[in-house]
Design goal:
TIM Barrel, alpha/beta, 2 domains, eight-stranded parallel β-barrel, binds 3-methyl-2-oxobutanoic acid, 8 strands
């Protein structure tokens, strides 16, 4: 396996805490299928998130809300079939963790049993704390998710930066402390001011992973389709594109069409 890092040991939640302690930044990227997860793992990614952003980038839905538990399990299993080194975290989809701890635990156990994933990610703070506690008490690592929570889009009305005012910032800090206290293995902070990320990162001993949350977090996460430039139309300020796969793929597919039409493909060497 050719990885960016020499350390080929399996990444664990415990190792993420060690990385925070020694100031080593944590890399995290989404994946939803076997082939892409295999490439991302071989490149040396620390954490692979099977995000419910699959709803947007794999299915074409406008929001993450339609994603079902069965669909997340399908994507989680596909990723797990590929990954050898990265810690794999699967998102609990909308409606599966919403104030009924026993029901939430049942859903969490299904994901763990049927995907073989290492951990789950759950959006929300105090409101879903009893659910998160029940799941962690059953031995399942949970990563929290605060700030912009896409599953709450119908409550917010926009995907704008969250926690800009002092009361929302204070609630976010309180929620982060509660998530740490209940035993979360890390927290994703999405689209909040960089200074607030710094406060949370400095106060907590569990790893903070940011997306659109500035440079102070212990690690960064992006959606794979966005950073590889497969999504041409999504350009938020926080996104850095590392490739232009849209153009590469359009050109490759157009060249194939041209070769088929002109009978250049297949040639003799490509025939039996
Ligand atoms: O679903 C997802 O991809 C996520 C990231 C944006 C953090 O939750």
């Amino acid at each position: 396996m050719s990885t960016y890092t020499e350390d080929n040991r399996k990444v664990t939640t415990h190792r993420l805490i060690e990385m925070k302690q020694r100031g080593e930044k944590i890399s995290m990227l989404t994946a939803y299928d076997y082939s892409m997860a295999s490439i991302i793992d071989q490149a040396g990614m620390d954490v692979i998130l099977v995000g419910d952003s699959a709803s947007n980038v794999m299915v074409g839905n406008i929001t993450t809300l339609p994603m079902t538990l069965d669909q997340m399990i399908y994507h989680g299993r596909s990723v797990m079939n590929a990954v050898k080194r990265a810690l794999v975290v699967v998102d609990m989809p909308f409606g599966t963790v919403s104030g009924d701890p026993l029901r939430s635990l049942e859903a969490a156990i299904r994901v763990m049993k049927e995907t073989g994933a290492d951990a789950l990610k759950i959006e929300g703070g105090e409101e879903v704390l009893p659910d998160i506690k029940k799941i962690i008490d059953a031995g399942i690592p949970v990563m929290g998710h605060l700030g912009l929570m896409p599953q709450s889009i119908n409550k917010y009305g926009t995907y704008n930066v969250r926690a800009k005012d002092t009361s929302e910032a204070a609630k976010l800090i309180k929620d982060a402390l509660l998530l740490e206290e209940v035993g979360c293995c890390g927290i994703v902070l999405e689209k909040i001011p960089a200074e607030l990320t710094k406060q949370v990162t400095d106060q907590l001993s569990i790893p903070i992973i940011g997306i659109g949350a500035g440079a102070h977090a212990d690690g960064q996460v992006l959606v794979m389709h966005d950073m590889l430039g497969i999504n041409k139309d999504f350009s938020p300020k926080f996104l850095r594109r590392y490739a232009d796969l849209y153009t590469v793929m359009i050109e490759a597919v157009q060249n194939y069409i041209k070769d088929v039409k002109s009978t250049d493909f297949p040639n003799e060497k490509e025939s039996y």
